[in-house]
Amino acid sequence: MGGPMSALRPDAIRLRGVRQNNLKGFDVDIPVGKLVVVTGLSGAGKSSLVFDTLHAEGQRRYVETFSPYVRQFLELLPSPALDSAENVRPSVAIKQGNAVRTSRSTVGTMTELCDWFKVWFAHRADLIDPANGQVIVPRGPDAAWQDSLARFMGQSLSLAFAVSKPETLGWKTIAEEFAKAGFSRAFASGQRIRLTEDEIPAEATELLVIQDRVTIAADQASRFHEAALAAFRLGGARLRLLDDQGRELSRYSEALESPIDGRKFRPASPALFSFNSPVGACPECRGFGRVIGLDWNKIIPNPALTLAEGAIAPFQGNVYGESQKDLIRACRKAAIPLDVPWKKLSAAHRKIVENGEAGYVPGEYDSKWYGIRGFFRWLEGTTYKMHVRVFLSRWRAYESCPKCHGRRFREESLFWRWQGKSLPELYASPVSDLRTLLAPLAPKDSRHPADHALEAILARLGYLEAVGLGYLALDRLSRTLSGGEVQRVNLTSCLGACLADTVFVLDEPSVGMHARDLSRMVGILRSLVDQGNTVVVVEHDESVMRAADWLIEIGPRPGAEGGHLLYQGVPKGILKVKDSATGNWLSGRRVPEPRSPRPIGDTTPRLRVSGATVNNLRDFSCSIPLGRLVGLCGVSGSGKSTLLHQVIGRRDPESGDEAKELKWVKFDKEPAEVALVDQSPATRTPRSNPALYVGAWDAIRTLLGNSAEAKAAGLTPSHFSFNAGEGRCERCGGAGWETVEMQFVSDVALPCPSCNGKRFRDEVLSFHYDGKSVGDLLAMSVTEARKFLGERTPASAQLACLEEVGLGYLSMGQPLTTLSGGEAQRLKLVRYLSKIDTRKPGALLLLDEPTTGLHREDVARLIGLLHRLTEAGHSLIVVEHHLDVLKSCDWILEMGPEAGPAGGHLVAEGTPAEVAKAGTVTGHFLALGDDAFASASTTASKPRPTSISLRGAREHNLKDVSLEIPHGSLTVMTGVSGSGKSSLAFDILFAEGQRRFLECVSAYARQFVEQLPKPDIDSLTGLPPTVAIEQRVTRGSAKSTVATVTEVAQYLRVLFARAGVLHSPTTGEPLEEMTEDAVVRLVAKKAKALKKGSLLIAAPLVRSRKGHHRPLAEWAETKGLRLLRCDGKMLKVEGFEGLDRYSEHDVDAVFGEIRADGLISLPDETEESGEKALRTLVRQALAAGKDACVLLGADGQQVAYLSTSRSDPATGESFPEVDPKHLSWNSPRGWCPDCRGHGLEVTTFSSDEEESINENAIADRVGEEVCPTCHGERLGPIGRSVKLAGPKGRSLSLPGLLRLQPDESLAFLSGLKLEAREKAIVGALLPEIGARLRFLDSVGLGYLALDRGADTLSGGEAQRIRLAAQLGSTLSGALYVLDEPSIGLHPRDNDRLIGSLKDLRDRGNTVLVVEHDEDTMRAADLVVDIGPGAGVHGGTIVAQGTAAALEKRADSVTGRFLKEAIPHPLRGARRPIAGKGAPAEWVRLKNASLRNLKGFDVQIPVGRLTVVCGVSGAGKSTLITDLLAPAIRAAVSKKKDGLTGKEALAVVSYQGKPAFTSLSGLKGFRQLVVVDQEPIGKTPRSTPATYIGAWDLIRERLASLPEAAIRGHGAGFFSFNTSGGRCEACSGAGRIKLEMSFLPDTYVPCEECAGTRYGSAAKAIRWNGKSAADLLAMTFEEAAAFLSFDAKLGDLCGLMVKTGLGYLTLGQSSPTLSGGEAQRLKLVSELAQGLPTFRERSRGEIRPNLYILEEPTIGLHQSDCRRLIELLHALVDQGHTVVVIEHHPDVIAEADWVLEIGPEGGNAGGELVHAGDPESLAKQKKSPTAPSLRLTLERGQVKKPKV
To answer: Phi-psi region for residue 1288, left (φ > 0), alpha (ψ -120 to 50) or beta?
Structure first.
């Protein structure tokens, strides 16, 4: 295929001027589709380039395509410091570390193996009957016949079905119904019954109705099958075989049912085998496998104690000591010995102590023993008390779920087995064993879903093995994995996700991997590249570097001396770079320093391990020499960490706590102390720094505080602490900066304005020690500080340790969160080294992979440090894979031989040389040395995927569709409405692309993003991350504006809240700071003004924050406070049960009460008086309220808000801190209280309506006049008073800024007068705001003011705004999926859109457009035609290729219309406008003056088809929908011929004045019918039949049947939305919603009614053999024939068929309709209003209607457009008048009369450009519509037959 697709794809991501962190402004190109390794010394700047620049930019640009709501939850990375970035791809970071905390996540869920297993297991497992252990299979008519032939040959059998008696009906009624249906015989309670004669016994529970009686013989097969099929259908899929006496011989079920006890089972489905689905999860633990229970190890910590000695720990002490007395009494009563240790008590005695006496009832504690469990149950009833909750937490722990025993699944799921194994048993097997078990079943060329799932399972299991994780089981909890294991599991997840064109960045994936596994891990990285991705790895491992396609080195030194680009190119090239540390090691110019091991003999003291049994260690024993450097090595998962952490280090694997006793370890010589340095992060708080972390700052504080100068200044060592004490800066709490929350852009960290980032108060900073302030000391590097301090403090030794590990370049105050991984690892080592007293040799230091994050140069330095420690007499045991470290050890222990169950043994020990000869896995690599990696070379990558390849799509109506979409193409997906286009484009391609990307990112974020279900497909490869731009025909709410639609308002709210200055709403003056003294004076003044009563002083704790806020009550209780004010109501702290966690709340804590006489009552019930007491009280409240306090009346109502930072200097009035919600007119916190954010006057409502009245009710009360309170600015007093200072001394509030046009707003914002602090905030927001404002200008909408109401925009303006906002992305490599972007666009604007789509494609994206527009199709590289029909008649690819290729396909409806245009005029001739046959009447409007309309006159012919056209925003909808429609409706309702503008003021006006002069010509119309663009309701309960009103008529018909009348059933009985005939199990929904914590709701068909919505009583009422449920299942084509005798119903169904919707069923759920289907359904609904009544029809009094349709072609295929045109003509032929607002040239070409409004949009439009027929318009040279209309008329010219 030619064209842009064949052009070369961009070959590199180009970063220019990179200055992030320490990077020095270099340019770098990252090759696309390659394996790229970035290396360099630790701290040189590798992560700054890879994570903080490359990844941050790619992730940020992709996340920007999500909604503002979702962006709040995704990790928001700040925009990196660089000049430019081109060809940026969406990016995924696979970092080290384990952030998973939920017990739901397992290795299986992380890798999606559980998702594939549930599909495979659902198809391959057998259901085992728990009653007999046999396999249960459905047994239908064939099974019944074969069984009967074998067992009952020659016998006469009755085939029967069972009927149960409904509560509402008697047996007599049921017998009558079956007799009417032709049945005559039955059995009940063993008696033979004749249905027309005999009475059925009242006690009978079921009636066995006989379908037929058959003698079993070979020639009776047909009769038997016919009877059996009928019995199965009527008996709910069940059949009984009876003998002549009615005895049951056998029963059969097409469902899964036990033949033994009749137990029913749910059919196998993937959801049944998912513990994350309500269908499959254990109901007790909800799929967690654990429940919170009692921790018996804590309750009975010492089983050697007797009950009398206090074995039961909770009963000891004063608080619950009474229970110990109760226990002793109960033991004496039950003869339980009190002097026998707990562990020796009998099981029966222990059971009584634990569970209590049998028959104990709560409250009988005086007479009966309640047991330990009963004690805790009693406590759980008083958990509203804080001390009880604290006490309970000490004795609780997670325990295995008692119902599922930790297997997570419900009992029913466990009955299904494959080869005798349940699914949890498979999940418990190690990955390697599982793969071995399943590998023989590997399918070959099978399309079966189970085989496809098995292929994916085997591939993912192979990935896990390849990265050395074959020892893990799939049920292993994610949170128990190490950081390296998590990274490798995530790596395989990303590989399994099959994304393409994505950048994956990894942080040292080799960490924790044995040298043997590295080549396989490189293979995994290469596989990720082969899928079409770019993989960028920060790595120091030699084998990974040699295997890379491209190598980048950053250096030359760490910290400030690094950040230079030393090398970029192929790996071999670096060998020649002499100043490269990496090149020196790779080339062999630099080699490790050789060391001889220290001697180890029989007298060497040892650490001895014996009988250790934990994890995979089984009775493990070894001896380890002390005083030596010992290496612990072996393949990943062999048991090294278990031995180090849990055996030698005595660490509990769950809690990390140190065990009290050494179970398995003995020392020949006890160590002085034991220190364990693991791989946990150094710290998560940015407050910590190197000096503080290693303990040096305490000594420095002591030195400073004890100096004579400090004492003279009144300073102590505590003054020099920035984490506590009086010396730290009060504003930032010693942090040095403030974090400004920016909502949906990344938060901004700013230096504290008070201390300027120096952390301390001014008086502390002014103190100098030897010429240096404390701020200067923190700014020094470690080396500079050590030299400055010299020998004056012990801190110098700790700083020297930092220098020794190569960290002397770090600044003393650098936040630890900014350190690289290697820096943090070494810092942790120094922390422990500094704790070990070098004067006391003999410490045991346990190190877990200390080389993590270290370059080989840094490793050499580390080895020197380890040996220095060993020389000092300490013992070191190091878990390590790095060969340099292992070679330098004195002794090595190798664990193995393999991982998991195959490991846990000591396979070799000795010196490095001895292990090298042992022939073990590690020994092999030790023997080879560097030669082991020399052969590693770049493996040629496979060709990158060039297309998105979809196989076997079966979503919705798609019929096993397969498709290839070339990367970098503009592809159009077309077809008739409802054919399956959106299912393919959105439900499969978009949903799967976004889901796969989100699977690779934050698990936290995924819970807030709509969980997109996996589509029903076989495979989908080559899929990039996706961006959806869906159709949105709604204009937004009544409050939506241009600013909100473009998202500019959201950013401006944050900008004003964070950088604006709040002015006093009262005086207009800027607010200032107020002293504490002034606040005290104001409080005293308010108190003195009291004549009686008192004031409460409270601290505002929370404002507009969701949550239950129980922690605030707990905090208040610890402070001794008694009252909280929550949302204006006073609540007691004691017994506080929490607030609604999903609502926003305001919470204040009451600190005291001030009476009129000056007496102060405190929460502890003491009383004080005087200024000092008042000052103390105020100070406490200000401290808790962050410089604010609230004065409340005794009733809890606010009297005053006081603040030290935001006060009106004139009045003393204070105001709260500005929140973005104060600037939102959609939030109660920000909107004007009188108009609720509408800006227009609202009819008042009573106070009791205040809380309950909703937005829709308010919208109905909005008038035309401007709100007198906010003057149309929509915001409350605070929101209107926040201002920004702009150029030329001009200050604007947010409403003032929104009144401007985009270019004016941008000019103002670009010239803001800002301090340094505000510049940082504006810098983060202005690019986002600027981009959106420029987009508006670029699509020709620069004339729109930002506060223009969205409901006043034309469809085209709204569409261009939306497209501009979303197509302006600078992303590359993504798949953009657009849903009919041409809707509402004039052909001229459509050309501009096509240009934008091509630009998007040319930036390296793949663009997929669901579209019917001919011009877009002709511009596309590929057109895919879905069809041939709609609904069940569609779902296949009819044709694909270029538009020209489609024209040649006779079977393509789209091709046919591309080739042969609709002939114009379709009727052969237009209806006359003048002369003979001219319209008798005209609708005349004079002086149209609404909004931009320029006061013109307009005429519309009656009885004709009129089309109104013009560019977007010209005024078409304003004229027809907003002016004419309400005026005509008012006149027709009053049966008037017309009315004046003044008379119509109540329905239409402009700025309070008439919108026109006069309107006439309406006397002939029966009614006005308007079909607008408002979307139809799409609740699952809504159906096409209910929407168009047909179902109401059908219900009335059903209710009129005699059977219904006899039973008293009205029309309401047949409604599935109200009680009566509906199925009550599902409330008429036909499905059941299963809700589950943390997961999306799941819907399953209702088993009671089988999804039909109705109960048996309603189904028994039949109309011509059809029940209500049967009618809902009909298509409209079937219904049109079935209901043809009813004129109104026949017309309604006929309209559905005429509009091409005949294939829809009456009961189809509305959310499943496509956009085109919904649009036509709305059309039918509105047209139905104009159908004549029965009376009018019978009398022939059919009066014409006036129809107004707004862009009815939206969502319609060209063939549907032709149908629509025919329908419009049919309406006109019936005498109606039709006015259509339309851009579609074919509709314009069919008009009898055309009005064009224009010539441009906005203020440049609003004129009547043309009025006449289409031909005359086509000749207009200045008309924007003429060119496309002229072309349409020429193509559709009716060819006259040759004479």
So the answer is: left
**Strand (E) or helix (H) holding 546:** helix 542-547
Asked if 1343 and 1802 touch (Cβ cutoff 8 Å), the reply is yes
In a 3-state reduction of DSSP, which class is residue 948?
strand
- The average pLDDT across 88-103 equals 72
| C-alpha–C-alpha distance, residues 684 and 31, integer Å | 34
Q: What is the end-to-end Cα distance of the chain in Å, rounded?
A: 45
Query: Tens of pLDDT along 922-937?
Result: 999 898 876 655 544 4
Contact 1550, 1491 (CB under 8 A): yes
Q: How far apart are CA 539 and CA 567, in angstroms?
A: 15
CA-nearest of 1538, 1472, 1530 to 1503 is 1472
Matching residue, tokens 């070990």: 836
What is the helix (H) or strand (E) element at residue 1321, kind and residue range? Answer: helix 1316-1338
pLDDT tens by residue, 1369-1422: 678 888 999 888 888 788 888 888 888 889 889 888 899 999 988 889 999 999
Higher pLDDT, 1055 or 1002: 1055
475 and 424 Cβ atoms separated by less than 8 Å: yes
Number of helices followed by number of strands (H, E) in the chain: 68, 71
**1273, 1232 in Cβ contact below 8 A?**
yes
d(CA 27, CA 638): 44
CA-CA distance, 40 to 853, in Å (whole number)? 10
Angle, vertex CA 778, rays to CA 774 and CA 782, nearest 5: 130
Compute CA distances 16 → 170, 566, 641, whole Å: 85, 16, 44
Separation CA 1278–CA 1265 (nearest Å):
23
CA–CA dist 307, 332 (Å, integer):
11
Query: What does the pLDDT read at residue 5?
Result: 34
Tokens of 9: 């794809």
3-state secondary structure of 633: strand
Task: Summarize pLDDT for 309-365 with one digit per residue, the tens.
Answer: 999 999 988 888 889 999 999 999 999 999 999 989 999 999 999 989 888 888 888
Instruction: Find residue 677's DSSP bridge partners.
Output: 847
Phi, psi of 39 (to 5 degrees): -130, 180
Name the pairing type of β-strands 1406-1410 and 1375-1379.
parallel
Amino acid making up residue 1506: T
Cis previous bond, 671, omega within 30: no
- The encoded tokens of residue 292 equal 């919170």
Amino acid identity of residue 1735, one-letter, is R
Q: Tokens at residue 895, please?
A: 């664990």
Angle between helices 795-804 and 856-871 (to 10 degrees): 130
Average confidence (pLDDT) over 898-915: 91
Distance between CA 1589 and CA 4 in Å, rounded?
Answer: 51
Closest CA to 645 of 673, 674, 668, 670: 674
Q: Kindly report the length of the chain.
A: 1843
- CB atoms under 10 Å from CB of 1171, counted, come to 11
- The CA radius of gyration of the chain, in Å to the nearest whole number, is 40
Q: Does residue 1251 have a pLDDT over 50?
A: no
The encoded tokens of residue 1235 equal 């108009």
What residues contact residue 1388 under an 8 Å CB cut-off, 6+ apart?
1511, 1824, 1827, 1828
pTM score, whole prediction? 0.74
pLDDT at 1695 over 60: yes
Q: Is 1535 exposed, middle or buried (0-12, 13-18, 19+ CB in 10 A)?
A: exposed
Please list, in sequence order, all residues whose beta carbon lies within 8 angstroms of the beta carbon of residue 1304, skipping any fewer than 6 positions away.
none
Q: Report the distance separating Cα 1257 and Cα 1242, nearest Å.
A: 11
What is each CA distance from 466 to 548, 684, 791, 940, 1423, in whole angstroms?
18, 32, 54, 19, 41
1198: enclosing H helix or E strand: strand 1198-1203
Q: Which residues of 1392-1422 are buried (b: 16+ CB within 10 A; e: fewer)?
A: ebbebbbebbebbbbbbbbbbbbbbbebbbb
